[in-house]
Amino acid sequence: MRTISLVAILAAVVCRAALALPVSEPVPGGVAVIEIATDTATFMNRPVMVLEDQGQRFAVVGIPLSTRPGKQQLQLGDGSSIAFDVVSKEYKVQRLTIENDRQVNPRPEDMKRIKREGEEMGRAFRHFDRSLAADTSFSLPAQGPISSPFGLRRILNGQPRNPHSGLDIAAREGDDILAPAAGRVVATGNYFFNGNTVLLDHGQGLVTMYCHMNRIDVRPGEIVKEGQRLGIVGKTGRVTGPHLHWSVSLNNARVDPNLFLTKTAAGI
User: Which residue segments constitute the domains of the chain, with CATH numbers given?
Assistant: First the structure.
């Protein structure tokens, strides 16, 4: 087993501009970019993205928000492992009032639907496709101010709920939602909490999700180009007003979308 420090992890992304890798921030809800010698790796028993440039390989590891700070192990394809440090990060608290209390305290009949939809989205988030050329350089999918950043510890109608697993963009109702990078549509649907939703697979476990849409303009299985319209902004599902909830998932860990905004973004 080889141990590397936080400094070494950050040093591994010196060539980030050439590779267009996401920012390395090894915190709960962050991403660790680690130079490795093998072409495959796993973290928490999940395959992780491996990118290569000029003979160097980098594991791009999504760290779940629930991860405790401290030493973590990246398992390599040759049976060895690398220990890396996950450092703590404090996220702010957000209190929201939802007028439809059923969206905070679902009825028993709602729970069957929520479970079914959770399983459907879970399959999309777990999808790992090596055939897609992963693009980790994103632009913002909609125009508008950020109304809720990633990682907020949410309290809805006075009740603690799961941390905010995406980025909320307060775009205007009817505004375009554009693919931040090329990908394949792996799921669409109208979900209890998320409303009209699209999930895109960008390759090697990198999946993005777009929620609360007014209209969906793509179909499952469709290949979309960067900048292609996925639909338009709405206020479906559990919302306090029109906006786009944008999630980025890496090896089935929801991570901070800001770490992937390496292209010229949408003027925010």
Answer: 2-86 (2.60.40.1590), 93-260 (2.70.70.10)
